Amino acid sequence: MLTRLQSNKLFSKVLLSRYNNGFPNLISGSQFLRGFNEITKHRFSVMSGENLRSLSNCASPRNYRVVVAATREMGIGKDGKLPWRLPSDLKFFKELTVTTSDPEKKNAVVMGRKTWESIPLEFRPLPGRLNVVLTRSQSSDITTGENVVICGSIPSALELLAEVPYCFAIEKVFVIGGGQIFRETLNASGCEAIHITEIGTSIECNTFIPSIDSSCFQLWYSSKPLEENNVRFSFATYVRVRSRTTDNYEVKDLSFLPRMIVERRDE
């Protein structure tokens, strides 16, 4: 007899397998139930209506982590582009956002339309991840399909990712820009951690984001100083503080942190 968790995971895999183009852009309640009922005729014993309803939503909304590179003044760009060239940072970003502890799952990267358009055409969607693109435009020319979905806002994206099949198929959610999206999410309650590449060299920017709120976040990991293309930088991770005293702080279970960050701190 399958446990409920095993049942849910198996159900999610079968549901996802029905979409030849990868993740569906939208699964309405009626479409979801019709598809599942059709599958059960051939693959599963019939489930009760109550059990089906319990599968329609896992949690709401999803928590997330912010990934950003910024100067000391919290500058993140100039004229819509990164004003530095750091291959090591791009490698770190890819490893951080692609790697999962469960090989059968993927991570999601949430970004605004301008960030999506700034990615060279040959590199988008970002491979190995579910790309969630935020746009309020009703006439967007963004092509949905395998690994690309569109949402109108951060709240709607986090709610979608909390629903079946995403709650079973997506392991971690990363918010990756741009400026307006960071301003909405950086210090918000749903942010569990901030992975920031701290640029130590003075570089001119004209796009800025808020500073990390030290009353909410505590530095948990910082790499040794690095330098590349005459730019000094380091990788740092801040975690949300659950409670704090004058000389100490407490965070919740750190299982939400990527394994690579935990391993780097332990080195």
TrEMBL record:
<keyword id="KW-0560">Oxidoreductase</keyword>
<dbReference type="GO" id="GO:0046452">
    <property type="term" value="P:dihydrofolate metabolic process"/>
</dbReference>
<dbReference type="GO" id="GO:0046655">
    <property type="term" value="P:folic acid metabolic process"/>
</dbReference>
<dbReference type="GO" id="GO:0050661">
    <property type="term" value="F:NADP binding"/>
</dbReference>
<dbReference type="InterPro" id="IPR001796">
    <property type="entry name" value="DHFR_dom"/>
</dbReference>
<keyword id="KW-0521">NADP</keyword>
<dbReference type="InterPro" id="IPR017925">
    <property type="entry name" value="DHFR_CS"/>
</dbReference>
<dbReference type="GO" id="GO:0046654">
    <property type="term" value="P:tetrahydrofolate biosynthetic process"/>
</dbReference>
<dbReference type="InterPro" id="IPR012259">
    <property type="entry name" value="DHFR"/>
</dbReference>
<keyword id="KW-0554">One-carbon metabolism</keyword>
<dbReference type="InterPro" id="IPR024072">
    <property type="entry name" value="DHFR-like_dom_sf"/>
</dbReference>
<dbReference type="GO" id="GO:0005739">
    <property type="term" value="C:mitochondrion"/>
</dbReference>
<comment type="pathway">
    <text>Cofactor biosynthesis; tetrahydrofolate biosynthesis; 5,6,7,8-tetrahydrofolate from 7,8-dihydrofolate: step 1/1.</text>
</comment>
<dbReference type="GO" id="GO:0004146">
    <property type="term" value="F:dihydrofolate reductase activity"/>
</dbReference>
<protein>
    <recommendedName>
        <fullName>dihydrofolate reductase</fullName>
        <ecNumber>1.5.1.3</ecNumber>
    </recommendedName>
</protein>
<feature type="domain" description="DHFR">
    <location>
        <begin position="63"/>
        <end position="240"/>
    </location>
</feature>
<comment type="similarity">
    <text>Belongs to the dihydrofolate reductase family.</text>
</comment>
<dbReference type="GO" id="GO:0006730">
    <property type="term" value="P:one-carbon metabolic process"/>
</dbReference>
<dbReference type="Pfam" id="PF00186">
    <property type="entry name" value="DHFR_1"/>
</dbReference>
